[in-house]
Amino acid sequence: MTNTEQGARRVQDTPPAGDPVLSLRGISKHFGAVSALSDIDLDVRAGEVVALVGDNGAGKSTLVKILSGVHQPSSGTIRFQGETVTLDDPSAALSLGIATVFQDLALCENLDVVANIFLGKELNPLQMDEVSMETRSWTLLNELSARIPSVRVAVASLSGGQRQTVAIARSLLLNPKLILLDEPTAALGVAQTAEVLDLIERVRDRGLAVVMISHNMEDVRAVADRVVVLRLGRNNGEFTPDASNEELVSAITGASNNSVSRRAGRRQAQAASPHPEAGL
Ligand SMILES: Nc1ncnc2c1ncn2[C@@H]1O[C@H](COP(=O)(O)OP(=O)(O)OP(=O)(O)O)[C@@H](O)[C@H]1O
Ligand SMILES: [Mg+2]
Questions:
Q1: For ligand 1, is residue 36 a contact (CB within 6 Å)?
Q2: Cα(58) to centroid of ligand 1, in Å?
Q3: Any bridge partners for residue 137, and if so which?
Q4: Ligand 2 center to 270 CA (angstroms)
Q5: Ligand 1: residue whose CA is nearest its atom 1
Q6: Distance 214 CA to ligand 1 centre (A)
Q7: Fewer Cβ atoms within 10 Å of its own Cβ: the N or the C terminal residue of the chain?
Q8: β-strands 226-231, 234-239: how paired?
């Protein structure tokens, strides 16, 4: 958005300009004696997909729940669009521009696509007639090039991929800046997975910041710009999507990956530097 100095050089593989939309520092979360997250740092920029990976119990969902206002962190800071924020409840996160598609999608089977897209978003019910809701639904779905036969069919009659599409369209209704997707392809077949991954790319191309949780390294490599690994509730490395399966699996399971971690650390330091030309 801002004009940079004319002489500024563009570095091809640097994520789109500027400061992170979301910046977490030192986030910890305890559930009684259980330490689910310890000292987590995470940056996500506009127009990038960050894959959050890690084994069962690594803390991924806990982090998403903190970002969607379901849980409060025990310590640490959340900066969103340059401001330090507290996300006291899900509506606080939503109104700031953080939308979440939870794994179970939370769609109502018996309602049609339009009703599902607007479900729970009755911000100003009197102004929402059926025609404008339907038009808005089509607009959202068309922007995503979504293949939904009709917005007047019940969600129960849609495929898994189409349901995921409806859930993503729904999350875009309030024009969020950041969208969190918890296992968006977990229950999908090959073709539907490809469709949802395309959709994620289109969401990114609209300039949104995307955090995607996945256990599937192929899916991660297909769409992620960066891969952030959590292990036992801690950061355990950051990778580009061309990282090998071995590298990723080592970080996820805890085998040594020192050179990779150091490289990620240098990249992070460069990104955080106000004078990137000072870096290597
Ligand atoms: N509400 C809770 N109360 C107590 N402990 C919790 C709670 N939620 C999560 N935990 C614990 O926090 C840790 C991280 O859990 P979390 O669900 O975030 O993992 P995850 O990375 O999402 O795993 P998965 O891949 O299996 O979904 C686990 O040890 C879990 O048992
Ligand atoms: Mg989880």
A1: yes
A2: 7
A3: none
A4: 31
A5: 31
A6: 15
A7: C
A8: antiparallel
Q: Distance between CA 280 and CA 277 in Å, rounded?
A: 8
| 94 vs 174: CA distance, rounded Å | 8
Quick one: tokens of 209?
Answer: 């910041």
One digit per residue, the tens of pLDDT, for the chain of length 280 reads 333 333 333 333 444 456 799 999 999 999 999 999 999 999 999 999 999 999 999 999 999 999 999 999 999 999 999 999 999 999 999 999 999 998 777 788 899 999 999 887 654 555 667 888 888 899 989 888 888 889 999 999 998 888 888 999 999 888 899 999 998 888 788 888 888 899 899 999 989 999 999 999 999 999 999 999 999 999 999 999 999 888 898 999 987 545 555 555 666 678 777 655 444 4
pTM for the full predicted model: 0.82
Q: Which of 53, 62, 211 has the most ligand 1 atoms within 8 A of CB, as the residue to mutate? A: 62
Rounded to whole angstroms, the Cα distance separating 27 from 20 reads 16
HEC readout, the chain: CCCCCCCCCCCCCCCCCCCCCEEEEEEEEEECCEEEEEEEEEEECCCCEEEEECCCCCCHHHHHHHHCCCCCCCEEEEEECCEEECCCCHHHHHHHCEEEECCCCCCCCCCEHHHHHHCCCCCCHHHCCHHHHHHHHHHHHHHCCCCCCCCCCEHHHCCHHHHHHHHHHHHCCCCCCEEEEECCCCCCCHHHHHHHHHHHHHHHHCCCEEEEECCCHHHHHHHCCEEEEEECCEEEEEECCCCCHHHHHHHHHCCCCHHHHHHHHHHHHHHHCCCHHHCC
Distance CA 167, CA 129 (A): 21
* Ligand 1 lined by 29 (C-beta under 6 Å): no
Give me 13's structure tokens.
């593989």
